[in-house]
Structure formats: structure tokens, C-alpha cells
From TrEMBL:
Native source species: Parnassius mnemosyne
This protein's name: UDP-glucose 4-epimerase
Reaction equations catalysed: UDP-alpha-D-glucose = UDP-alpha-D-galactose; UDP-N-acetyl-alpha-D-glucosamine = UDP-N-acetyl-alpha-D-galactosamine
Record carries keyword Lipid biosynthesis: no
Pathway note: Carbohydrate metabolism; galactose metabolism
Keywords from the UniProt entry: Carbohydrate metabolism, Galactose metabolism, Isomerase, NAD
Pfam families, sorted: Epimerase
Family: Belongs to the NAD(P)-dependent epimerase/dehydratase family.
Biological processes, Gene Ontology terms: galactose catabolic process via UDP-galactose, Leloir pathway
EC number per UniProt: 5.1.3.2
Subunit structure as annotated in this protein's UniProt entry: Homodimer.
Cofactor dependence: NAD(+)
Length: 355
């Protein structure tokens, strides 16, 4: 069988854009793309076998995606995938991912993110697959001791949410299995705040319910789906009092995963490696609102409300290691992020339901 790349959570926001990036490459015919997803945050039209985002990617690339509706906590279902395909490496996105929600639903986050990840590792080991790119997060750093954040910054200290703790715990598990068995190769990509959409405007972020992340919230207000943006706190020690984050275009982020896979083919590469993916520049919530108003040509009404549990004042990345190790750097601008988000949302005001 042809070698395959397994993408868990590949019908989600970052996962689907990474699938698109993999299939848009010139060497895409050298491997199969296999996606597993429980569709907890993806839309599938009635009567269709695949979620809309994957169906559209197949249309755009004229390539086939092998899809399985499987929860990563289902060892039997995962084993069936490994039996059916010659899995060479895994890109692991599948997880619950909202900081604020995790404070309200910690058990659900630990079950999905930690138990699910351990089940995946167990099945990988059973089938002799030891190469993994992990979707981690800057939340593992907790409250920053200094900015910008580099990979030597302590992790696991002062973590503010069960989401961040789950990512930290998973990284610690990966370090342990890499120490115990030298066959493992793990690249943990600690990314900052993904935004934007595919440049075609055909796939983008389509969260279920009220968005937990800033950019889809702004976009849904701009398109009229929501009345106003809620800004969680304006009393942070930042220039305008609102939270500052390092926003990175999702297509840049997807390319970072593609670059990471190439490291597996370098002689002598092994063990656990953590790498930041960001732009190195922080923008406040109100700066993002103003930039999006320029992109869409409309005013974005917003209301200041209290701080959200689990949020911190500011974080942005030192990305020098990603330049050296991966040969990667973010190339899309804030204007690109806003323009591509607006193209996606204005073309698809109800998300994938109207695509």
C-alpha cells in the first residue's frame, strides 16, 4: 500500500487547512491522506459521507481523502484505520480547544485531550508507527515570565485553564515515551492564535454555536449573524487595556506542519522537540477589530464585558527556532488574515451549511 499520513481532527479548522496544504503540494501523489474525526466541530450535509470541508478540498485539489468518523478514544475504530492503510506518520489535531469552555467543562477536556491522545499513542505503537506531529499550544507556558516567549520558557507553571493543562500533560507524556523508546519522533508545535481562511474563500473557521475565538466572532458580527462582539476585559496592563495575542494565518500554520513532517526524514532525528509557531508580533483585541473594519468596510459594534476565566494579558512568540529547525516563517500579514476571513465569511455567511 502507498504510505499514508493520518490526520486526526482533520475536519476541524486547522486540521482541514493542513489537509489542503498537504494535497496542494507537488508530491501529494506520493502518499494517501487519511482523516479521522468525530465531527463534534464539523458540518456534514445530510446524506453525505464526508464533512463539507473535506468534500470541498477534494473538489479544489482533485484528490481523494480517506475519511473515517472515529473518536480517538475508540481504540477499535482507530485500529481499523491502521489495518486499512499503511500509516507512516500522524498529525494529531483532535482535541477540544476553547480556553474559557475548558474552565466550565474540565472533565470533558481531560477525557478528550489526554485519554484520547493516550489511546492514539497506544494504537500507533501497536502498529509500529512512531512519527508524530502534535498540535500543541502557547497555553502550556501559562502566565509569561517574559515576552516574547521562547521554547526554553518554563511550561506547566501558573497554567490558567484545563485546556492549557491538557496540552502540557500531553507534552509530558510524549517526553516520557520518547525517553522510554528511541524509535519515537515527536514534534510538538506550540502555536499561538490561528486566524484567517483559505485564500480561495471556500474553507474557513466554522465553529458550532457562539464562537469562542475572536476572529470568527468578529466575522459573524460583520456578516450579521451576531449582534455585537463581546470584548472580555479592557483593564489588562496593555496599551489599550484589551488582551494582546500573536495571531497567525492558518495557511502559514498549515505549512508549518508540512515542514515538520520533513524532519522525520533527516538522518539521526529522534526524540521530542517543541517549536513555537507564530509571527512574533502581538495585536490587541481592539487593534484586530479596527483591522477587520478596514477589510470588510463595515463598523463592528462591540461591548466591553468582564474578563473571561483562563485568559491572560498578553503573549507573543519568539519564532527563531522555527526558522532554524523547520526552515519556516509566517509570511501572511494582518491584512491578509482579515481579508481572507472576510472572503470566507461573506461568501459563506452561514458557514459550510450554505457552501
Amino acid at each position: 500500500m502507498k504510505p499514508a499520513i493520518l490526520v486526526t481532527g482533520g475536519a476541524g479548522y486547522v486540521g482541514s487547512h493542513t489537509v489542503a496544504s498537504l494535497l496542494e503540494r507537488q508530491d501529494a501523489t506520493d502518499y494517501d491522506i487519511v482523516v479521522v474525526d468525530n465531527l463534534s466541530n464539523a458540518y456534514r450535509a445530510e446524506g453525505r459521507k464526508k464533512p463539507e470541508c473535506l468534500r470541498i478540498i477534494e473538489e479544489m485539489t482533485d484528490k481523494t481523502i480517506h475519511f473515517y468518523e472515529v473518536d480517538i478514544r475508540d481504540a477499535t475504530g482507530l485500529s481499523r484505520v491502521f489495518e486499512n492503510h499503511n500509516i507512516d506518520c500522524v498529525i494529531h489535531f483532535a482535541a477540544l480547544k476553547a480556553v474559557g469552555e475548558s474552565v466550565q467543562k474540565p472533565l470533558e477536556y481531560y477525557q478528550a485531550n489526554i485519554t484520547g491522545t493516550c489511546t492514539l499513542f497506544d494504537v500507533m505503537r501497536k502498529y509500529g508507527v512512531y512519527k508524530l506531529v502534535y498540535s500543541s499550544s502557547c497555553t502550556v507556558y501559562g502566565e509569561p515570565e517574559k515576552l516574547p516567549l521562547n521554547e526554553s520558557h518554563p511550561t506547566g507553571q501558573g497554567l490558567t485553564s484545563p485546556y492549557g493543562k491538557s496540552k502540557y500533560f500531553c507534552e509530558e507524556i510524549m517526553k516520557d515515551i520518547c525517553r522510554s523508546d528511541k524509535k519515537w519522533m515527536v514534534i510538538s508545535l506550540r502555536y499561538f492564535n490561528p486566524v484567517g481562511a483559505h485564500h480561495s474563500g471556500r474553507i474557513g473557521e466554522d465553529p458550532s454555536g457562539i464562537p469562542n475565538n475572536l476572529m470568527p466572532f468578529i466575522a459573524q458580527v460583520a456578516v450579521g449573524r451576531l449582534k455585537e462582539l463581546l470584548v472580555f476585559g479592557n483593564d489588562y496592563p496593555t496599551a489599550d487595556g484589551t488582551g494582546v495575542r500573536d495571531y497567525i494565518h492558518v495557511e502559514d500554520l498549515a505549512e508549518g506542519h508540512v515542514k515538520a513532517i520533513k524532519l522525520f526524514h533527516q538522518p539521526g532525528f529522534s526524540g521530542f522537540h517543541a517549536v513555537n509557531l507564530g509571527t512574533g508580533t502581538g495585536y490587541s483585541v481592539l487593534q484586530m477589530v479596527k483591522a477587520f473594519e478596514v477589510a470588510c468596510g463595515r463598523q463592528i459594534p462591540y461591548k466591553i464585558v468582564g474578563r473571561r476565566d483562563g485568559d491572560i494579558a498578553a503573549n507573543y512568540a519568539d519564532v527563531s527556532l522555527s526558522h532554524r529547525l523547520l526552515g519556516w516563517r509566517a509570511i501572511k500579514t494582518l491584512e491578509d488574515m482579515c481579508a481572507d476571513t472576510w472572503r470566507w465569511q461573506s461568501n459563506n455567511p452561514d458557514g459550510f451549511k450554505c457552501s
